[in-house]
Amino acid sequence: xxxxxxxxxxxxxxxxxxxxxxxxxxxxxxxxxxxxxxxxxxxxxxxxxxxxxxxxxxxxxxxxxxxxxxxxxxxxxxxxxxxxxxxxxxxxxxxxxxxxxxxxxxxxxxxxxxxxxxxxxxxxxxxxxxxxxxxxxxxxxxxxxxxxxxxxxxxxxxxxxxxxxxxx
Length: 168
Hints:
Layout: E1 4-6, E2 13-15, H1 45-56, E3 73-77, H2 124-128, E4 134-138
Antiparallel strand pairs: 1-2, 3-4
């Protein structure tokens, strides 16, 4: 293999050293999902692991051509927001163009001193304005067929409004 490459921007040749492995940046040591965590050096390792697992399941805009894609199951968040604090890796992975998640401002006071880690208090007005509003799309496949034993044909159509009504 020729270790010479052409740099497109300034049309100069770049010679490769022939490395088998090369570390890009120390922040990418724990993977792409962990590079989204701001100030991860101030968190416990278990919290960073949990955040990495949760970011894989985050809801937002799955792609910019969502109307043309045919996926089996899709969750779409109506009003995704860019995070308030980002990392250097976020600008390379397009989380600003296709955000995942919502910025929620919460104030917690522990009255009795018990752990409030998993509780959530939501304002009714925020729900009415569309906080956490999402849509779940699922595609199904079916076909019209003829039953070989009975000879009846299955037809896909809009049901008649009169059929199936019960008289009161």
